[in-house]
Specification:
Elements (H helix, E strand, L loop, with lengths): L2 H11 L15 E5 L2 E4 L4 E4 L2 H4 L8 H11 L13 H13 L6 E5 L2 H18 L9 E5 L8 H5 L4 H4 L10 E3 L9 H15 L3 E6 L3 E2 L5 E2 L4 H11 L3 E5 L23 E4 L11 E5 L1 H5 L21 H16 L2 H20 L5 E6 L2 E5 L4 H11 L2 E2 L6 E4 L7 H20 L2
Parallel strand pairs: 3-15, 5-6, 5-7, 7-10, 10-11
Antiparallel strand pairs: 1-2, 2-3, 4-12, 8-9, 11-12, 13-14, 14-16
Helix pairs in contact: 3-11, 4-11, 8-9, 12-14, 13-14
Length: 429
Amino acid sequence: MSPAELHALDQAHYWHSFTQMAEYESAIIARGEGVWIEDVEGRRYIDAASSLWCNLHGHRHPKIDAAIRAQLDRIAHCTSLGMGADVTVQAARGLADLTGNQLPRVFFSSDGSSAIEVALKIAFQYWQQCEPAQPKRTKFLALDAAYHGDTLGAASVCGIDRYAALFKPLLFDVIRGPMPDDRRGTAADFLTPLAQLFAAHGDELAAVVVEPLVQCAAGFAMQPLGFLRGLRELATKHGTLLIADEVAVGFGRTGTMFACEQEGVLPDILCLGKGITAGYLPLAATLVKEEIYSAFLGPANSGRALFHGHSYSGNALASAAVVANLELFHQEETLSQLSAKIKHLANWLARIATKPGIKNVRQRGLIAAFDTLPGAGTQIAEYARTHGVWLRPQPNFVYVMPPLAITLEELDTLMQTITTACDLALTRQ
C-alpha cells in the first residue's frame, strides 16, 4: 500500500491508545533498526521513548531476531494450563536467577496491567489461606499519582484521576498515601504520614504497591533517597506484603537491573513487563517468594490454586525473546556500559538546566525529565519530530528514556536536538 492509503486506513480504523482521535495526526512506522525508527515516508527518528519504555537493545537486534525465528520453526504457542513450552521454562528460570532465586516462582501474563492484576489477586488470596490465615487483610495501600495500569484492579490502585476517575464506580477502594517526590521533600516527609496509615490500617492491609524510584506517569517524579527502603521497613514491621511495580523501571532503566536493588530492597512480589522481551513481544511476569507460592498448594479439590490465567500466558515466541534478552545483558555487558551513558546524559541535562524557563531537571539512570513553561513541552516535541527525534509530546515537560543500546554519539544527536528545540520554544513564550 502507498503511504496515502495507509494513512487513510489508519484514520478510518485504528483506535490508538491514550489518544484523542479527533485531533490525531496519522503517524505510521514501517521499520526500525537500532535506536532508529522509520515511517512509511522514509523519515527516520531516534526512538527517544523506547517505543513507550519497552525497547532495550535496539530494534532488529540480530540475536533476538534469530531467537524468535528459531523458535518459530519449533512452536509458536502452547497453553500454560497444565503444560508449557520448554523455552518458557528457561525464561522463568532466567528471571528467577535475576533475583538470586529469592523470588523463584514466576507467573506469566500478557502486559504490565495484567501483571499487577495477578499480584493483587495473589496478595489477597494469600492472606485468606496462609497458615494461620488473616482474612481481615483485604485492603491495599497505594500512592498518590501512582500508575499501575488500566485494567480494573490496576486502575483501582492508580492515583491519577484522568485514568481512573471516570471508572470509579467499577473500582475497589484503596488507602492512599502521599506521592514521594524529591522536589517536595525528603524521605522522612513522606514516610511519616505513611507510618501513620500503617499504624491505623496495618492489620487489614494485604499489600502496599509502589513504583520503585520513579513514578513515570506522574511526570517522572523521582523518589527521595531512602524512601523505598523506609517503605520496605514499614511493610515488614506491619506484616504487609510489598508489591514492586517495575514494569517501567526494570531491566536497567535506572542503572541497575531492577530499581529495588539501589536501596537493597527485596519485594515480596515483583511485577515486570515492557523490557522483559526487550520490547519485541507482549509479555509480563509476576514473581513471588516461595513462602507466598506455598500457600497456594494443596489437593486439586482444595480450592487453593490461583484461578487466573491468560490464553497466551507464557507464549513461546515471547519467551524466546526473554531468554535472548537476558543473554544479551550478559554477553554485551549492558549494565556496565550504562555508566558512561548516564554521565553523558547528566552533562547534557546540566546545560539544559541553565536555560530560562527550564526547571526541575531530574534523572535516574537513563530516565530523564525537566519541566517547561506551559505548552512549551509540546512545541519542543514538534520541533524534535521534524528534526529526527521522536519524543512523546507532553504540554509542560519533556522526558527521554532511550533504548539502553544508544551510543554516546546518538545521545549527542538526541540531546542537541532537544537543546535547540528548548531555545526556539522558549523564545516564543
